[in-house]
Amino acid sequence: MFLNCHSFHSLRYGTLSIDDLISQALALGTRELVLTDINTVTGVYEFKKKCEENNIRPIVGVEVRKGSELYYITIAKEFTGLSEVNKMLTSYNCNGADLPLQPELANNFIIYPLSNIPKNLRDNEYVGICEDELNLLIREEYKRLIPKMVILCPITFSTKKEYNLHRILRAIDNNTLLSKLSEKEVCKKTEYFRSPESIHKTYANYPEIITNTQMLLSQCNFDFAFGTPRNRKHYTGTKADDLKLLTRLAYAGLERRYGRNHEQAKQRIEKELKVINELNFSGYFLITWDIIRYSNSMGFMHVGRGSGANSIVAYCLGITDICPIEFDLYFERFLNLNRKSPPDFDIDWSWQERDIILDYIFNRYGKEFVAFCGTNVEFKYRSIIREVGKAFGLPKEELDELSKYPERVFRDEIVQQVQKYGKLLEKFPNQRSMHSCGIIISEEPLTNFTALEMPPKGFPIVQWDMHVAEEIGFEKFDILSQRGLGTINDTVRLLEEKRGIKVNIKDTNISKDEEKCNEFLSQGRTIGCFYIESPAMRGLLRRLKCDNYKVLVAASSIIRPGVAQSGMMREYIFRHNNPDKFEYFHKVFEEQLGDTYGIMVYQEDVIKIALHYGGVSAADGDILRRAMSGKGRSLSALQKVKDDFFASCRQQGHPEELSTEIYRQIESFAGYSFCKAHSASYAVESYQSLYLKVYYPLEFMVSVINNMGGFYRTEVYVHEARKSGGKIMNPCVNRSEQQATIYGDEIYLGFMHLEKVESRLGQLIPEERRKNGQYKSMEDFIKRIPIGIETLQILIFIGAFRFCGIPKNELLLKARVLLGDFKPERRFETLFEEPVKEFKFPELKRNIFEDAFDEIEILSFPVSCTPFDLLQTKYRGTVMANELVQYHKKQVKMLAYLISRKHVPTKRGTMYFGTWIDVKGDYFDTVHFPDCLEKFPFQGGGCYLLLGIVEVDFHFPTITITKMAKMPFIPDPRYAHDEDKKYEAQQRMKEDVSMTFRAPYPQEHEIGLPRIGFDSKLKE
């Protein structure tokens, strides 16, 4: 009887999850149900699975609306019926076509509301009659339609509270107050489940309508096979031709990568090709190769990472640059006959080039067959409070207070209502968005499975997320972007453009054995370098004295939150620094995990131990790893794997106690360990960045700045450039570009750094200069560039006309005289018909620090001096950062400038990790515990006086702060007579703030990883 059920996938309308719909239907004894969400099929696949699990017959369709107006409800006779509706909705969503008022959908039943009945009803078209509309059937125009009528009992909510929630959702969707919400925007108060018997009773006087409804339902089916591979099957057209091409490409790559006579590589390629062919994944490899081939033809850099780097075929095709033989990477971690899910290549491009790659994929494989995965953006609590509060009419000030303290109990009744309904909305989908990188390339047109939508980004998305995609047989291609590759690309281009130096950065051996690079690495001098610049990573590099590529690969893994939280990071650091203070637990650990001191740092290590100790196959070892890490394996599957492992160990003749302890260790670390191939891929890019930083530091830092940095704000990278010998220059209309640029050792900041200067203008200034020569004066500039007085003043304040040799004060007066009442559109008809008059201005003196305060106001940091120069105090600290290792367990007093701080929630409250620079420009780190922070909190960016105890942990010093105070700047000389503004500029000084939710690292005794071998343990 329920032909029109809404779930909460009817965004900002429905209030019931799929589970709620099914459980309520079950409670009423309903055995068939129709899901018809508004303009979407997001929930249909979850609906089918869960209905069948509960012995309910699933039927699906779509309620088609334009705005708040209901056009009709479509119900698919069979699965192909959805395709018809999907095509219609896609045309509406993506191509701007109108929704037809009477569509031709042969494989659907179409149910019209009374408000939208077409003149002539086709055989598959009906009129839905609601309970409150039955009294209208006495009218002749409706009475004659009874033979074409069906029961319409829409489902939108289940309780009065949920009806109110529905109204709140509608108010949010319409951006209006609840009190102003019109009736046509909300559902009827009867749209909840009732027993089929009561519905039959209501329509008892119209048995024909009941019969029509039952007959319609009986003719509908939703047959769909989950898990059937639906990605594009072949690259060439046939499986045989795909294998032939893949084999030829793999062997050509083998010769290029290894030479002609590398027997081990050849055997591995043959083994991999056999598995790839057997699992029908040749097409997937070839499509990925094709994308890489295009990228290479465009001169783009890419990084192939993730478990795909475990494949030698991927390495030989150029998809990845990690040799799996060199790193002992197991192909089974990526693909094996026991693992039916398709492979997953993660490929990074520069953020500047990714859209070009996407355009190629969509054009090459057809826009009917390619789309991004969708994702459901849920209501988050802080935003919920604002949205719900606005619907209730709360003012902004109250909403700010509420969102800051969500758990506070308020007496106000309306606030209590806001909090109550806000809680109900948590985890509700709010809007559909685009998955950040996941692309589907389908064998069939995607509209066979979903309607497509067009978000602002300009690439179509499917209406379900990656998890549903996997369930129904799609595996995504991860096309990612990052700024690190942009930095590397731009540095290489800048070197060739400015210095004529060509660097073959794609040579991945370029820096692995560079002594100077390794020295920088061991000292943590990696600011600006991809993945290894954060305070935590630089601290780890120093603790390890990391001076080679293999240790960097390990560091890239153990820094990951899960690995670090498990305690493996602490244990790895200890063993790396104390190789004589532990025993390998078993000889297999020494043989197979020697590089990581017997610790299972990588996911591949779990496979190694299962293979070489337990005697199970590598494929079964991967099943063990996946089962323990919870990746799509049931408890029964895990038990079977465990039983097989112990049975195999007994066959090997291992003692039960030893096997039990090794299994415990595998179990402890399987969920935390990290993919080695992923770390190795990241480490290559980190080294490429480091090589450029070491040998071409100025060009490298300019590129970091232009790619908008990484972990830190622009100021830190400007500081790093200055430390490397660069002279930092403010933007200049005759030297600067939109981005930062370099001439010799002079680095000119770009117009992009001036927040209130539009990018269009920032690009026009250098374009005009290249076309018609340098600007001779400010007047010449005004004549050639359409600019308003406010923007011109910003350029004057930042010193962009300093080439004129005229003081800023005088330039400002001139600008106001010239442009005071000037309108840009009248520029040539008025202002410059006659020569510009010369004015005599009084001599105006400037304080030497006025420029610095101008810079802080415009850039948020000073360029013409350091923050230390602006302090009232002349004290600069008793100890410098480079001396801290000598002060272990001693108290030090330092003056420092705050770079960044990181929150870490603990049971005792929030603690912080701070990163600072001293007056010499060197970095150091601090720890702030909750009790200290209560008395001495952070007070924003700027310079602080610090008092604390130095702790040196494996070569790396940190200061545990006991006291700190923010130090005041000198009064702003620009506002010498304005008490309110004298200290305003200091508030613009920034800091980088981040947050982690990991617990503090466990100690050795908490980890449960013994530092003695099994034999020694028995002797105890």
UniProtKB/TrEMBL annotation:
<keyword id="KW-0235">DNA replication</keyword>
<dbReference type="InterPro" id="IPR003141">
    <property type="entry name" value="Pol/His_phosphatase_N"/>
</dbReference>
<dbReference type="Pfam" id="PF17657">
    <property type="entry name" value="DNA_pol3_finger"/>
</dbReference>
<dbReference type="GO" id="GO:0003887">
    <property type="term" value="F:DNA-directed DNA polymerase activity"/>
</dbReference>
<dbReference type="InterPro" id="IPR004805">
    <property type="entry name" value="DnaE2/DnaE/PolC"/>
</dbReference>
<keyword id="KW-0808">Transferase</keyword>
<dbReference type="GO" id="GO:0008408">
    <property type="term" value="F:3'-5' exonuclease activity"/>
</dbReference>
<dbReference type="InterPro" id="IPR040982">
    <property type="entry name" value="DNA_pol3_finger"/>
</dbReference>
<protein>
    <recommendedName>
        <fullName>DNA-directed DNA polymerase</fullName>
        <ecNumber>2.7.7.7</ecNumber>
    </recommendedName>
</protein>
<dbReference type="Pfam" id="PF07733">
    <property type="entry name" value="DNA_pol3_alpha"/>
</dbReference>
<dbReference type="GO" id="GO:0006260">
    <property type="term" value="P:DNA replication"/>
</dbReference>
<dbReference type="InterPro" id="IPR004013">
    <property type="entry name" value="PHP_dom"/>
</dbReference>
<dbReference type="InterPro" id="IPR011708">
    <property type="entry name" value="DNA_pol3_alpha_NTPase_dom"/>
</dbReference>
<dbReference type="InterPro" id="IPR016195">
    <property type="entry name" value="Pol/histidinol_Pase-like"/>
</dbReference>
<dbReference type="InterPro" id="IPR029460">
    <property type="entry name" value="DNAPol_HHH"/>
</dbReference>
<keyword id="KW-0239">DNA-directed DNA polymerase</keyword>
<keyword id="KW-0548">Nucleotidyltransferase</keyword>
<feature type="domain" description="Polymerase/histidinol phosphatase N-terminal">
    <location>
        <begin position="1"/>
        <end position="68"/>
    </location>
</feature>
<dbReference type="Pfam" id="PF14579">
    <property type="entry name" value="HHH_6"/>
</dbReference>
<dbReference type="Pfam" id="PF02811">
    <property type="entry name" value="PHP"/>
</dbReference>
